[in-house]
Automatic annotation (TrEMBL):
Quaternary organization: Homotetramer.
Sites where the protein binds (S)-malate: 240, 495, 539
Bound cofactor: record note: Divalent metal cations. Prefers magnesium or manganese.
GO molecular function, one term: malate dehydrogenase (decarboxylating) (NADP+) activity
The reaction(s) this protein catalyses: oxaloacetate + H(+) = pyruvate + CO2
Organism of origin: Urochloa decumbens
Cofactor(s), names only, from the UniProt record: Mn(2+); Mg(2+)
Keywords recorded for this protein, A-Z: Metal-binding, NADP, Oxidoreductase
Protein's name according to its UniProt entry: Malic enzyme
Catalytic residue list: 187 (proton donor), 258 (proton acceptor)
Amino acid sequence: MASVSAVLLRRSSSRARGYLQLQRAADGTVALHFSERLHWWWWSSGGGGRFGARAAHGMAGSRERINNGVVTGGVEDAYGEDRATEDQPVTPWAVCIASGHSLLRDPRHNKGLSFTERERDAHYLRGLLPPVVLSQDLQEKRLLQNVRQFEVPLQRYMALMDLQERNERLFYKLLIDNVEELLPVVYTPTVGEACQKYGTIFRRPQGLYISLKEKGRILEVLRNWPEKSIQVIVVTDGERILGLGDLGCQGMGIPVGKLALYTALGGVRPSACLPITIDVGTNNEDLLKDEFYIGLKQRRATGQEYSELLDEFMTAVRQNYGQKVLVQFEDFANHNAFTLLAKYRENHLVFNDDIQGTAAVVLAGLIASLKSVGGTLADHTFLFFGAGEAGTGIAELVALEISRQAKVSVEEARKKIWLVDSKGLIVTARNDTLQPFKKRYAHEHEPIKDLLGAVKAIRPTALIGSAGVGRSFTKEVIEAMSSINERPIILALSNPTSQSECTAEQAYTWSQGRAIFGSGSPFDPVKYNDKLFVPAQANNAYIFPGFGLGVVISGAVRVTDDMVLAAAEGLADQVTPEHIDKGLIYPPFSIIRKISANIAARVAAKAYDLGLASQLPRPKDLVKYAESCMYTPVYRSNR
């Protein structure tokens, strides 16, 4: 095996610019070469190991020669790379130099037609681009026009993902400046269809894939990721993607989309974000039979094998990135979501957006709704349709907030909350068959099988849907809610749009324009009796980007329920009387960066108050500090 060391020195002056390369071969011989432009290096494991370099001009010993019938071209084939036969493995060993073609293909630094004349000369771009120089704003305008030309949402999604892979800053500027228009494209509902078709639209990997094949080697896999200063990880096992079920490895679209929003809405640096899919198989028969499926074609691992893989993953994350990297669990099935959160929350910095994030944004909507309905949370009754991780997570946070406001125990606060699952109202008579996280909401009452019967019996102020059963809020259900309440609160939270419990138009029409409506997926404004209603979207994107930013800037080492409550209260406080007059229970997404900064400040303040923050000293003005830490996508000038 050849012993190799290399030193790259760039020389730049008015007379010459290029690279000095110091090479040492197996026999100890050292050669010094000069090149105007280094293209790439390679290390070849075939034939006992060979090392070489190719350059554009001026390489010492460069001359065309024929060795064993092979034309070696302009570089002396000192180590036999050109003579390697097809059955000899050749492993490329690359050092990227940010100039020329390599610069144009680096999404973090590529500016396309915005490279200035000086930059084009300094970085060997002359001739590689058309002569015009465009501003970033003009680039953005052109791309937005291009995106709008696509009528199919999935085509828009693919166009934006292509942009992200070739020009990172332009992608985020486009998304930030047009967030209300493009959020449904890069995330729900379009991302659901993208995950379903991920195998056929797959172009290049956008995150890390950790499968059962890597068991025992997860730390090694993490070290393959080029970025080392990771602050936020979003991880899924793909078992419960939105309301679409088990999509296996193709669930990667969710972590990628979530982290795009962490950057665009929360200002977390793109290089500090890592999307991960843990592939333990899939029970989706269609995917197992799909020749284009990109994951393991086997049934899901469960039990000890699954648990050991997750343990190894969490241990490897801490070992590689430290204890202050936030791990967000995303779209795990109920039976794993609660278990993983309970298992790791005491010793790791973890957050489950489906449980805690959804709960925070819904609680914020309920608090804001009371500005119109009146009273406190403790004065009202809440009925949940759906008792999975989202439903019970929301219920638990609402109960915690009621207990804080009313100065009662959480057990007492839970009496204001009722749940309906697939078998009907959850009551104590069903305790023998209930999962542990449902038992705490089993109250004394006669069994009721259907939602309409539960509404008539419980007489709730708010009806909250998270079951993923489309159109389950029927006309009869909403009319019953409207007969009980002057301003019924109707939250149809299930995603994507096809799984929503009702549409905005149905809620407003069937309640005769009296409903306070919110949904998980976006709906267009509705005109009823000459009044325009603007549906509120209870989107987790209100919470998790700002929450994550607050964790990062404070250096928090744990996530607590108090921090989640702080995020919910921070969001509710930004709902003004003007918003309420328009029927909005959330502030507009057009000011989402301001919203995220305020939520980050609330979360960070709570972390400092609880002694969980490690970023010291504590900033005097946390809102300004959060804003100063946020990533901005404006182009930088290159030397």
